[in-house]
Fold these 2 entries.
Entry 1:
Amino acid sequence: MANERQTIIHSSLGSVFSVFSEEELKKLTKEGKRRIAISGKINSPGIIEVPKGATLAEIITMAGGLLNDSGFKAAQLGMPFGGFITEDNLDQELDFKLFDKNTSQTIIILSDEDCIIQYAKFYIDYLLGKMQDGSLDNYLVAKKEIIRMWKLLDRISKGRANMRDIFFLRRLASTVKEKVNQKHNIMEEIIDKFYDEIKEHIEGHRCYTFQCNHLIKLSITKKCIGCGACKRVCPVDCIEGERKSRHYIDYTRCTHCGQCVAACPVNAITTGNNTFRFLRDLATPNKLVITQMAPAVRVAIGEAFGLEPGTNVENKISSALRQIGVDYVFDTTWAADLTIMEEAAELQERIEKYYSGDKSVRLPILTSCCPAWVKFIEQNYADMLDVPSSAKSPMQMFATVAKDIWAKEKGLERDQVTLVSIMPCIAKKYEASRAEFSRDLNYDVDYVITTSELMTLFKDSNIDLSQIEDSPIDSVLGDYTGGGIIFGRTGGVIEAATRTLYENMTGKKLEKVEFESLRGWDGLRVAEVKVNDLTLRIGIAYGLREAGKLLDKIRNKEEFFHAIEIMACPYGCVGGGGQPKAKKRLETLQQRAEGLNSIDRSLDLRVSKDNPKVRAIYDNHLDHPLSHKAHELLHTEYFVKVKRGKDENTDASKEE
Ligand code: SF4
Ligand code: SF4
Ligand code: SF4
């Protein structure tokens, strides 16, 4: 498929030359001695003929100037050799001797929107990739030190480093310089020029560019016009601000639901956009990048390309992702079926124990696939943390299976796979960075890109989803059933669980899999479903205000339920904060939800337990739902969230 990949991939955050065009790049930039290929934070990346005497500042102007009117930060000449130019040399004539004779004449421009830690990690990833394919054998003598540098940078980017790590970084850089006989070493230059930024990551746990996803907190930027829309929709009233003045978020109470982001008319709320990191990962030699995509993404993204809300474009997304260089395109929906296997088994076990008089068991069971809802209960209902299902969300189940089973079967280590989740959700960015979903600082999900961010990336890369040919999603991990796909709309998770639970408890096949009583658009609904002699009482809520009311009633024993589904966003994930904004919002969300129902209706298999690949994973790896192995890989715990000091609580923007 390499020939279908794009030479240059863009996002509104920058551009990169795809690694697959390197030979072409070399040819292009060596044909004429003064030709360079320029990318990064500039408006018009491409090949430029540089006039004699031109300075880097003039070359940047020729390349359309810096993106978003940002400030110049640095320039990398040639990858991975070459000079590293900072502001001091911006007005000097570009010295072509700074390009190594064995590489293409490329310049990567960094602006003040670039995180220096993320850039340094990219640089080392690139270097390691080149060493792996044998094109940089001379660096092998220092491989150990280079890997150690990467690990230190990784710790810094995840807020787990201390100031002594800068000392170690400097020492390693000096060893590499000596061993490889370099004239200069980029890491030394980065430490010298950007010491304060590194220190800010380590001591302040802050990345001012919002690119280090483990350090991100939702933040309202200077773009805020004080309209108050965010304050009105926030379900936990954690946004403050006077009309016409900048607003602020009290982070200790924020659930990451993203409703403020969806409501903001001027996109003033920053959630951390990892699109550019995604492009860099795709351009890194020998890096294996895989994606997973949530159900709700496929029925919304097409709207930006003139398609009706609810149109299923999963095979077009798959095709577009391959075109920009993704190695495997997977589907989270398959893992939604896996989630149902665990949740339905857990519900059945709790019901059976409860009615046999086991006082340690509490009902209702609460669905747990919405991370905003999970954070809400951790922050506000510390006495009820044993009621949500302990099953991980489909995104996290997929990630565990991909890194701990699929990668192993391919002979890969966890850290050799970069897993990017495409989600309708802002809270998934937060969920992916929860420490319990990591091992030795390698997170199951490396980072999350929202539907809207992916839409912008496709548009910037001139990919039109309405025109692109279909290409099926990789089904190595299996296809999905109708039960998995309806996860994306309100009532879908509990309906999918009820389908499997009903068949498990009665031993009979369902004649009609649609449970109409569980469907609807009201924010709070109650339904009854008969299973054998038991009438299951099920609650369904979306929006955390409604969820709070429901939980209060349960806590006060005013209401009894066997199971409850709660999703933070209106109509469920179809209305997630990471979805494209819609003019006729509620109508559009209903169309998206109907799109998912229509996929469900079109499938032969509609009950999660019938998914053959899910059954195979139990047969081959997990034994049975709720087994010891399943618990180890597919379940999690919840923690009381307490205030941890001022720096953890405040919207970073308040201190600017
Ligand atoms: S993400 Fe949700 S909880 Fe947090 S500030 Fe925005 S609306 Fe409020
Ligand atoms: S952040 Fe956006 S929605 Fe909130 S007050 Fe500012 S402009 Fe309005
Ligand atoms: S309802 Fe869906 S999109 Fe919204 S916060 Fe929960 S998981 Fe994310």
Entry 2:
Amino acid sequence: MWKPPRPWVIERSVDPSAADAATYLTTHVRSQRPEAASVSTGKPAMLDKLRERIHIFCNMGICRDEFGTHNFRIRILLKTLIAPIIKLDDMLVSMRTVYATADIMVEEGPRETIIVPVSPGGSTQLDFNVKPCNLGQTPTADQKKLFANRNNAGSTDIVIYFVRQTIPPLNGCAAFPAGMPGAVVTRNASRWTLAHEVGHVLGLSHIAGEKNSNGKCVTPDFTRLMTGCGTSNIAGTPTITAAEIAKMQSSPFTKKC
Ligand SMILES: [Zn+2]
């Protein structure tokens, strides 16, 4: 008898509570994550097509994970130069929780620790100049060097680099060289920084009306993911507006399930 193919990312038939999401992620999703060795590099376009076919075949138009069923998905890869204070898994749970409210599943590709030498054969660089950190800016030499590390990433995959510091000091920066979608997250980042920076990559701006003409936060809104006044002040799960959701779903880096 013909049976529908099993979805790629589903492992449980019950609807677990958010409380055990972290346990699920470590025991199930991590174990299912394809390992670096299983994916060849150098032909991202071909890999993209293959991944796309596998996805469509296996998921029959629906993405499902611990956070529900979704009509859209993005794929991110986490590359660590130095581990952030908040654990990667905790940032990922926060991100998946808030992206689920935008009907977007966050898939994760192979995770790896990378070394970006200051000079060939030199010691690891940990701090990166991202000035002025505007979307579409001319990339700095540091950004070019960092974002060139796209091992296992397809052309629409978003690569996150965990560094010690940015210059100037920020929690993260989502300015990326053309054709290399990604963001930098620093060691002192909050649990919402990952979700916030990827929000920028998907086309979101900071919310309007929080700052005065001198750039001082006078009326911050810490209920929103895209606050420009510091995600470390967010309490509870932040919100994304309908207009922001529409923008995220129509990003070139977001795919239909
Ligand atoms: Zn921001």
